[in-house]
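tool_call: predict_structure(chain=1)
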Amino acid sequence: MTTKLTLTMEDKVIASAKHYAQKKGESLSHLVENYLKSITANDVKEEPLSPKVKSLMGVIDLPKDYDYKKELGDLMAKKYAK
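tool_result:
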């Protein structure tokens, strides 16, 4: 079911948003709806962890300054180095 919603905002914001929607080939309503869905998605209850996953929690003790993004980048660079 869809329901009409009236929003009030600055003219410049509306013009920019309409231009953006047109470039993306979508309606402004669709963009706003998807945005609102994305920011409220975190409110959805998370599924409980399985016992197997729970048993793995806390198994690895990493240093506080561990940078997993750097480590992953280094591994990817090594893997794809020519």
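agent: The mean pLDDT is 90. Proceeding to next step.
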